[in-house]
Amino acid sequence: MTGADPAPAAGRTDSGRPRQAPAAANSAEQPWPVRSVSMKVTQWIDRLGSIWVEGQLTQINLRPGTRTAFLVLRDPSADMSLSVTCDPALLRNAAVPLQEGSRVVVFGKLSFFPGRGTLSLRISEIRPVGVGELLARIERLKALLDAEGLFDPRIKRRVPFLPATIGLITGRGSAAEHDVLSVARARWPAVRFEVRNTAVQGPSAVPQILDALTELDRDPVVEVIVLARGGGSVEDLLPFSDETLCRAIVVATTPIVSAIGHEPDSPLSDLVADLRAATPTDAAKRIVPDAAAETAAVRDLRSRSAAALRGWVERESAALRQLRSRPVLADPLRDLGHRYDEVERLRAATRRSVESLVRTESVAAGHLRRQLTAVGPAATLARGYAVVQRVAGSERHVVRGIEDAPAGSQLRIRVGDGAISAAALGTTPLGEHGPRRTGETGSDDPERT
Question: In a 10 Å sphere around its CB, with 0-12 CB exposed, 13-18 middle and 19+ buried, how is residue 170 labelled?
Answer without folding.
Answer: buried
